Structures are given as C-alpha cells and as structure tokens.
Amino acid sequence: MGMRYQKEIDLRMKRHTLARRTFLRGCGIAMSLPLLEVMHGQTWADQSTAPKRAAFFYIPNGVVQDRWGVDGDDSEFKLSPTLSPLQDLKNYISVYSNLDRVKVAGTDGHAQASTCWLSSAHPTELSPAGYPLKRTVDQLIADQTAAHTPFRSLELSCNPYTDNKESVYFDNISWYGHGHVAKSMRDPDKVFRRLFVVDENKVSASILDLVMEDAKSLQRQLGRQDLRKLDEYLESVRAVEKQIKRIEDRKGTIEQLRLEAPTVPWPELERHEYIRLMGDLMVLALQTDLTRVASLMVAPERWSTPQKVHGLFEQPILHHSWTHQQGDDRVRAELARLDQYHVEQFAYVVKKMLAVKEGDSTLLDNTMFLFGSGLSSGKDHIYTNLPLVIAGSAGGAIKTHRHVKSDSGTPVANLWLAMTQVMGATAESLGDSTRALQLK
C-alpha cells in the first residue's frame, strides 16, 4: 500500500509540474516566469539554495577618496558620507578596502580603468591594444550559469550621449576576450524587446494582454502562493511596460520642439529616471531567470560631453574635467555630491532586489551585487584602494554587515577569484591574484 500510494503522489506531481519556458508561447511571445511552486513541485525554501546571481554596477572616474573611506573594521564600522544612502541597508552589504589593480603604463588611464576593471588578465598579459585585457569576471561567471538561462548575460549602459567620440573601451566593462566586447545596450526599449522577444508586428498590443489568456489557463492549477507570485510578476512587467510607453509618448513632444530630425527619446529622460529604468530591467531579467549575470554602467568613462543631472545640479556638468580640479574645495564638494547620488541609485536597485521574494529569502539574498569603479582617484588616475561594495550574500556565501579591510597592496583579483568560486568556478588563480579573498 505504501509503495502504491507513493507512486500515485509521484504521478500527480508529474501531471502538475510544468516546464518553465514552455508556459507562455502564444501570440509570438516567449517569456520566462518566476519559479512557481507548481513548476518544480517545491518551494525554494525546500531546496538547499536558490539560483545564485551576480550583478555589477559601475561608476566612472573614481570617487572623492576622503569622502568615501569607511571607519572601523568587521561589523563595527561606520559608513562615510558618500555611502550614507546605504545606511538602511547596512545589514545587507559588505564594504571592501585596500584592494588594488596594477596600472599598465603607456595606455590611457580611463580606458584601462573601465575596460580592465573586471579583466582576468595578469598585468603582464597585454592585448594587442596594450591593455591587460582578456575575459572579464562576469563572463567567467557566465561560463558557469549560461547553460541554465535563455541569455548568457545582460550588459547595460546609461550613456545618454548621441555624439559618441570615444572608443569602445570607454563604454563597456564586459568582454568575452580581448577584441571581443560584450557590447552594452543603451536603449531601454531595445533591452525590453530583447528580453521578452515581442513580435514587432504586435508591438501596439499590451504584452500583458498577450500573456493573460495563457496565464488564466494555469490559475486553476496554482495555489494561493503561486497566484500571488504570478500577480506580482505580471504587475512588474506592466510597470516596466508603462515606463517604456512613457518614453514612446515623448516622441511627439520632442518632434514639436525640434526643427531637425527627432532623436531617440531615451536620452531625454531625467538622469535618475534613466538609471532606475535600466535598473528595473536588470532586476526583472534576474528575477525571471532570463539571465544570472548582469552589469550596469551608470555612465561611460571619461566622456567630455556635458551631462545633465536633474535635481542635483542646475547646469550640465563635466564629470571627468571636475575630477582633475579637486584642488578646488567647491569642485570637490560637488564631486562628492555626485558620488553620493550614484550610491543613491545603487541603493534604489538594491531595494528592488530586496523586495523580490524567493521562498523564505529574497532576490538580494541570492545575489552578489557589486558597486565599484576602475579608478580610486580620477584626478591622479590611481588604481589603489578601489571603491567596492557588495550588496547581498549570494545564498549565504558572503558575510554581510561588515567592512573587510585587507592588507595594503592586496590585488583586487583576489576578490574576483572568490566571486567566480562562489558561482561554481574551480580555478585557483586569476590574473595577479595571490589567493581567494575570504568572503565569510
């Protein structure tokens, strides 16, 4: 009787277990849904771990160092003024100090900062262009995760400029190898369409309308928790869709105001709207397991074009030029405000991750989301004591609520090596690493 009863349970589970990516196929759309109980027969709380994700949030031109530094070690630390937007998230972050990268002389300091920030190359391993550049850490991590997701990785850049005069090295941080860039996407609409593969002939129809008919067919099979998850997911899709529509709605206004050919609308977004919209898209991609590796550049490295930062500065600013004027107290103060502003945007995305429930944990709990820059000081092009913060614990692999102060001169490659190991890589060295950094 016991064996027959167990077989009947197994049969019923098979009948009600759905393949994730065959759920929605109608109307020319293929979408990946949250991991519902009915899709795998058990909640994440019943499993040893949820999928681990890795994400990177890059800021250009370094930081004002004396406003960045953190006082105290381990769990007894005080956030600096620049990091103060993370105060409410202190339990979920770890701050890292004294991690360095070797700067190779004879090449552009800024291009090397962004392009080689995550590089796995040893300082003596120079690409034909002269940079210590080969496969970047995010792509090494994607080597471990790509088999499980529709997209290997997602690369985003909040570059609002249409007059791109700089080379590819300034607007990308992800590389498959030297000469093979994982090119970042700047247009939120294209990102959205790439993620959700909407038939271009049906873009006028609501994505939600397209999937609701298929979704309704599932409702009788879903439990209360799955229904809530599905509702939350569809609501998040609608929220992003509405943001994209607001961008489209601005086209008419822009055409009326300009006598020349209209530009794409997304460069007209206010700065925080643009960054947060791209952050929302990144979170949605991670949440739905479309990818487990993503990166977001707040702005391109060095760029000389004036940049509007709405709500912070009345006039467009020249971020790169300011970094070379830090001897002026007023300029230093303004730069520090910009650094804090960037941390505020990072905190926004962290809170988004924290709000996504995955069983008894959250998306943030199952992610390591790194904030940093390839320069510590944009003024002197210094690569020592890089600014680095990780939000999330990658499923408990990283101890949070602490300041990790390494010995002076510790290679940042020690951190990169540890992060790849968290995601399943078995390599024992990376670049100029000396050992994997202790994350717990």
State the main characteristics:
single chain; 440 residues; alpha/beta; seven-stranded mixed sheet; two-stranded antiparallel sheet; disordered N terminus
Provide structural commentary:
By secondary structure, the protein is α/β, with parallel strands linked by helices. The protein is built from 12 helices and 13 strands. It has a 7-stranded mixed beta sheet, sandwiched between helices. Strand 2 (71-73) and strand 3 (76-78) form a beta hairpin. The radius of gyration is 23 Å and the shape is globular. Residues 1-30, 39-44, 197-205 and 250-264 have low confidence and may be disordered.
What's this model, at a glance?
This protein has about 450 residues and is α/β, with parallel strands linked by helices.
The number of helical elements comes to 12
Helix content: 25-40%
Radius of gyration in whole Å, from Cα? 23 Å
Q: What letter string, H or E per element, gives the SSE order?
A: HHEHEEEHHEEEHHHHEHHEEEEEH
Q: How far is the first residue's CA from the last residue's CA?
A: 48 Å
Shape: globular
Class by helix and strand content? Answer: alpha/beta
Number of strands: 13
